[in-house]
Fold this sequence. Notes:
alpha+beta; three-stranded antiparallel sheet; 1 helix; globular
Amino acid sequence: xxxxxxxxxxSGSYHFVLKAGNHEIVAQSQMYTTKxxxxxxxxxxxxxLSPDTEVQDLTxx
Length: 61
């Protein structure tokens, strides 16, 4: 897996895409006003989440 940081041509905002080894998109971020903010979020993801992180299933009625 790898991250790509991109800059929007229109707004100048930044976002990132997480891609699998086969280059398929796994996840895409929100827009960030600074590149530093996008990179900080990438580092947080790379460092991993707590195993007790809550998962909210919004597909169930």
